[in-house]
Fold this sequence. Notes:
By secondary structure, this protein is mainly α. The protein has helices at about 5, 10-20, 25-35, 55-65, 70-80, 85-90, 95-110, 125-135, 140-150.
Amino acid sequence: MTSAxxxxxxxxxxxxxxxxxxxxEQLALFWFIYKEMGNSITPAAPAASTASENIADxxxxxxxxxxxEEQLQVQRDLIENKDSQISREYGSLSDTTKLLFxxxxxxxxxxxxxxxxxxxxxxxxxxxxxxxRIKQLPFEEQITLFRQYVSPMGAEAKAGAEI
Length: 163
Ligand code: 45D
């Protein structure tokens, strides 16, 4: 990612819009985005990427073993920067690995390993507006936006408290 992308004012506007939504609306929107991006995500995942697949999968496996209610709570906690075991582990991942973790969650939602969004769930009109705007961004800008979105989620890894 280049610094020009990081500072892209259009992107920061979308980021603000995303973050200003309710937690549950953010989750719902993120799910709609995933569905919209569909198969275009896979080609962006070559072995040469900087994502640590094992780490993303390890965290995903922990979440997948929880009850659906707990899974939803874990995701709300990530967005709200609440402290939890998962939030701290998440906080220690690289941005791309964080993105991969969210991608794994959404894949898990498709086979109900992860709590699915109810089929009749409708975005509020405000959320839908944000969705329409994000949909129109070029793929690369979307990726940059989502990286920036998932980056500050979770909690600080408490380095000193561990072995
Ligand atoms: O009942 O360079 C509600 C990699 C309330 C590879 C709910 C990549 C109602 C390396 C909250 C709605 C693949 C990482 C319930 C690049 C209700 C690389 C629940 C690209 C149950 C570029 C809502 C990765 C829930 C990309 C549970 C582009 C919502 C990844 C959950 C993109 C929503 C990932 C989730 C995206 C959304 C993930 C988990 C868009 C995930 C979206």
